[in-house]
Amino acid sequence: MSYDIDTHFHEGTSTFTHVLSDIATGQCAIIDPVLDYDPASGCTDTVFIDGVLDSIAARAGNLVFVLETHAHADHLSAGDYIRTKTGAKVVIGHDIQGVQEVFAGLYNEDDSFQRDGSQFDLLVREGDELSLGQTKLTVMATPGHTPACLSYLVAEDGKVQDAFVGDTLFMPDVGTARCDFPGGDAATLYDSIQRLMALGDDVTLHLCHDYPPVKRAIVSKVTVAEQRANNIHVGDAHSRDDFIAMRRKRDSGLAMPRLILPSLQVNIRAGALPEPESNGTRYLKVPLNQF
Q1: Is 53 helix (H, G, I), strand (E, B) or coil?
Q2: Residue 168, beta-bridge partner list
Q3: For the whole model, what pTM was predicted?
Q4: Vertex 84: Cα angle to 82 and 88 (nearest 5)
Q5: Residue ranges of E strands in the chain
Q6: I need a surface site. Which of 120, 158, 200, 254 has the fewest CB within 10 A?
């Protein structure tokens, strides 16, 4: 294998932050990094992501990219912090523009907030390629959870070996992502998942979260074959129509993620916090009675 994958688990948000490294050159990418945030105090911290960066430094890695699979609603991105500290480019899907438009309205952002994705360094689309030395990543659009969701595929000898799938899929005993956020759609998610399933049974899917049943350990990756055989929402035993009906019914009763309101106003800024106000303090807005 010409590349290495190192995974870190953020317990507070049940999030996996992956580090993909090209062995020959040491060039690497961080996928879905987390900024520590305590909603009770309003304090942010970088303990978790500094640990990830330290692990890269210990291996003499050269961080090139921060890859976001989408604008997360369950954790604050550390993308801007990493960019400021290392110079790495923050990457997200081109359709983030539509997500920015929706949530700029929710937070009543003024015209100084750009809705063109310019807060990010690179906007990518289906089929785009990124290079980490000899390791190549291909972008696959996998919308449904949100309209801007991406997966990043890593191939060796012309065959996809690994895919970083964000929130699109969870472990088979947990199922699939919700589809009730603005622009989400159950039918679209089903079709995106079928594209991932078609990559091949031996392909390893690297997840962004795990919410295990009590008696199971936390797991960060699963093969396509295991998903097809056992996924409780979208395995081979479940039809498209059954999935859509299940997902719509299930989503109608789900509570909002605990950190959705702080997360999205940071994540549409590529992980940057809102600008300080006249007293030098940064503020996060809480729109009332909107969900």
Answers
A1: helix
A2: none
A3: 0.96
A4: 60
A5: 3-10, 15-22, 27-31, 34-38, 43-45, 62-67, 76-77, 89-93, 122-124, 129-132, 135-141, 150-156, 159-164, 204-206, 221-223
A6: 158
How many CB atoms sit inside 10 A of residue 80's CB? 22
Please report whether residue 32 resides in a domain: yes
In a domain, 276, yes or no: no
Q: Cβ(117)–Cβ(103) under 8 Å?
A: no
Contact at 8 Å (CB) between 82 and 49? yes
Q: What tens digit of pLDDT does each residue of 32-51 get?
A: 999 999 999 999 999 999 99
**Total structural domains within the chain:** 1
In a domain, 95, yes or no: yes
DSSP for 226-283 reads: HHHHH-TTTSTTS-HHHHHHHHHHHHTTPPPPTTHHHHHHHHTTTTPPPPP-TTS---
CATH code for the domain of 155? 3.60.15.10
Closest listed residue to residue 200, CA positions, set 240, 256, 162: 162
Residues of the domain holding 231: 3-256
Residue 212 lies in a domain: yes
Contacts of 208 (CB under 8 A, 6+ apart): 15, 16, 32, 69, 72, 164, 165, 166, 167
Q: Which residues of the chain have pLDDT under 50?
A: none
Q: Which of 100, 104, 108 is nearest to 68 (CA)?
A: 100
Whether the Cβ atoms of residue 114 and residue 103 lie closer than 8 Å to each other: no
Measured CA to CA, the distance from residue 33 to residue 77 in angstroms comes to 6
**pLDDT tens digit sequence for 160-199:** 999 999 999 999 999 999 999 999 999 999 999 999 999 9
Cβ neighbours for 266, distance < 8 A, ≥ 6 positions apart: 35, 76, 77, 272, 273, 274, 284
